[in-house]
Sporulation protein YyaC (Clostridium acetireducens DSM 10703), 195 residues
Amino acid sequence: MLNKLIIDSSSRDSTFILRDAICNEIMPIIKKNRPIVILCIGTDRSTGDSLGPLVGHKLTFLARDKIYIYGNLDIPIHAKNLKKTLTDIKKNFKNPYIVAVDACLGSIQNIGNIIIESKPLSPGSALKKNLPKVGDLSITGIVNLSGTLEFMILQNTRLNTVMKLADVISNGIYHSILKTIGGKRKNSLVKTKIM
């Protein structure tokens, strides 16, 4: 069980630190033969909230036996379809292990950091949205400063910050799957539309 781990995305070792943390969490899940769902939350209509869809987009090719990707630039998972998506996941998979990826706001010195925890995240909390908590493992990237007018802050977030976070998170997830499952794609399934 992973306590809060904060990773500086600008560190040279950030991808490998994230990879090792994810490996430690998913290895027992893989041994139990549970499906792993990587749920990338956010919308491409707001720069600051596009972290999840960008990560999902970068991981589309990763889908393989027991690994499923939900949320990408083509079909983002956001406030309007999150509940339905969670219902579909519970209906389609027996006891799935959900890795939730989302953007968040934080203090100025933490912008660009990645937080990984063995607990659910609260999507939409910066905008005071009442959405279900989601994830057995949460990976959040701090994209900008929290405070007042969060909607405007998310809209005015630098794409460069979001892209750097997306690169580290997607590479960390990718390398954790390679290290634990291997590189062979089996009966792959990429979730490209909401049923």
About this structure: The first strand starts at residue 5 and ends at 8. The chain has one domain: 5-180. DSSP finds five helices and six strands in the chain.
